[in-house]
Design goal:
Order of helices and strands: HHHH
Shape: rod-shaped
Distance between the termini: 75 Å
Largest sheet: none
Radius of gyration: 33 Å
Structural class: mainly alpha
């Protein structure tokens, strides 16, 4: 029985099939690689834009506002010396509370009010941190049950809150990714 196919004919058909498969694979790889390159370029552009935003954030907001941030926290620590008297009068408590609130207002104007242009979430987080700190300290100062002229009591009730707030502020600034 002669089918009419020789080994050379089968080899030719196999070569055609192999060439077709190779052509399909080459097309698939070309399309896949092109899509991957587009994704890589877009990702690289996003990282570059993020880097630029972070640099501008650092240079235009953080560096110029560092003195105000440090002054705010130093002012809050300085109330310890104001309260280091034998008896703390109500007038002194009110004056110190106003001082804390004014210090918070100054920081909000010089630093916090700039942040919405950068990130509304960062602005909310930092504003919550600062406002919460001012409110806690003000309520502790007014609290008649606390003997704030005692150094350990002051440190426990106010000093530790100030330190946590400052650490949290630094954490919030460094956690910002420029997105």
């Amino acid at each position: 029985m002669d089918i009419g196919l020789e080994i050379s004919d089968i080899a030719d058909m196999a070569n055609i099939v192999i060439a077709a498969v190779n052509l399909l694979l080459a097309g698939y790889i070309f399309i896949y690689q092109r899509e991957r390159d587009k994704t890589d370029r877009a990702s690289q552009l996003r990282r570059q834009e993020q880097s630029i935003k972070l640099q501008w954030f650092k240079e235009l907001i953080i560096q110029p506002c560092l003195p105000e941030i440090n002054a705010f926290y130093n002012n809050l620590h300085s109330i310890e010396s104001k309260l280091a008297v034998d008896t703390i009068s109500n007038d002194l408590k009110i004056e110190t509370s106003k001082f804390v609130k004014n210090s918070g207002a100054v920081l909000r104007k010089s630093f916090c009010d700039i942040l919405p242009s950068v990130s509304s979430q960062l602005h909310l987080d930092i504003r919550k941190n600062i406002d919460g700190l001012v409110d806690k300290i003000s309520s502790k100062i007014i609290d008649a049950g606390l003997n704030l002229n005692d150094k350990p009591t002051f440190e426990r009730e106010i000093g530790s809150i100030i330190s946590r707030s400052r650490n949290n502020l630094i954490k919030q600034i460094y956690a910002y990714k420029g997105i």
